[in-house]
């Protein structure tokens, strides 16, 4: 019985030693074109460009979204009221600018000319009355009061005539260039105000997915207040995905930017990738590298880009990278 136990222990030791030898041989025989890494987590923090109360948020956490898809919007009632006011101001400014370009109407000029002629007749009558009263006063036929009244009437008629003549001259000359320019500038300012409100309503108050992805986190609900500084959604980019891996100095000569590679895991098939970037600085291997042999070695970070429209690669998933030599 004791002999059987000894034999069993010896067989167990031999089995363990053989397994260790096999694993060591297998690890050491890994090709230089192979590396291990992880799928990088790439996400976008989405926020409204404008501030306001959230009216609607469509996708829930885990929902896929497409680039250009509307995923949320703000209440824009106050902005629409302000836009109506700005539109009315624009129409008024445009009308004023049109009047400035065209000048005064001929009817207005003719009416002012007729008024000026009437005032000229009134002035002439006042002048004759004053002359007559002056002669009568010299002959002691009329009182000094009548002469004073005639003089006051003459001065009043003269002032009215001068004012009317000045108004007629202004109408005939039209508006000054500076006045026309001011009216044009006012119309442009009013147009810009309407355009600004249109942008706030149609663009800044709407949340659009910038890329294909999956909603990873939803951080607000309808009724909450939004601002440009508040993240509403965190969107994980589905494709392309970035794979971060590390190669040794011996492998570095076999890996080139733009070269092709194959990504694989234990659960999915192969996914084609491209080497996008190779670090120029060596570093100690991060703890996430799977092989114990490399953990104390100096390595170079390599990033690969893989198209994954079917979302087979999961964010943070460990992967095996096989570089294709000679390309």
Automatic annotation (TrEMBL):
GO cellular component: a single term: periplasmic space
Protein origin, superkingdom: Bacteria
Coiled-coil stretches: 71-107, 140-174
Keyword annotations: Coiled coil, Signal
Gene3D superfamilies: 2.40.30.170, 2.40.50.100, Helix hairpin bin (1.10.287.470)
Location relative to the cell: Cell envelope
Cited InterPro entries: HH_YbhG-like, UPF0194_transport
One Pfam assignment: HH_YBHG
Signal peptide range in chain numbering: 1-19
PROSITE patterns: PROKAR_LIPOPROTEIN
Protein name: HlyD family efflux transporter periplasmic adaptor subunit
Organism: Sutterella seckii
């Amino acid at each position: 019985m004791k002999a059987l136990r000894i034999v069993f222990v010896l067989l167990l030791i031999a089995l363990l030693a053989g397994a260790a030898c096999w694993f060591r041989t297998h690890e050491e025989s890994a090709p230089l074109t192979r590396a291990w890494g992880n799928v990088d987590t790439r996400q976008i923090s989405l926020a409204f460009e404008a501030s306001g109360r959230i009216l609607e948020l469509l996708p829930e956490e885990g929902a896929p979204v497409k680039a250009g898809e509307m995923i949320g919007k703000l209440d824009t009632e106050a902005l629409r009221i302000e836009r109506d006011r700005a539109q009315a101001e624009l129409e008024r400014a445009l009308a004023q600018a049109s009047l400035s370009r065209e000048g005064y109407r001929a009817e207005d000029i003719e009416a002012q000319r007729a008024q000026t002629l009437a005032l000229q007749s009134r002035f002439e009558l006042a002048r004759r009355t004053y002359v007559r009263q002056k002669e009568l006063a010299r002959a002691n036929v009329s009182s000094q009061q009548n002469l004073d009244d005639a003089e006051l009437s003459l001065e009043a008629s003269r002032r009215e005539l001068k004012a009317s003549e000045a108004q007629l001259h202004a109408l005939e000359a039209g508006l000054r260039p500076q006045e026309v320019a001011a009216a044009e500038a006012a119309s442009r300012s009013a147009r810009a105000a309407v355009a600004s409100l249109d942008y706030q309503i149609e663009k800044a108050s709407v949340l659009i997915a910038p890329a294909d992805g999956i909603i990873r986190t939803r951080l607000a609900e309808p009724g909450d207040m939004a601002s440009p500084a508040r993240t509403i959604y965190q969107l994980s980019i589905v494709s392309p995905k970035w794979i971060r891996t590390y190669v040794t100095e011996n492998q570095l000569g076999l890996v080139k930017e733009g070269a092709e590679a194959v990504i694989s895991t234990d659960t999915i098939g192969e996914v084609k990738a491209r080497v996008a970037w190779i670090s120029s600085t060596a570093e100690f291997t991060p703890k996430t590298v799977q092989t114990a042999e490399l953990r104390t070695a100096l390595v170079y970070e390599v990033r690969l880009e893989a198209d994954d429209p079917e979302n087979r690669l999961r964010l943070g998933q460990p992967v095996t990278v096989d570089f294709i030599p000679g390309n």
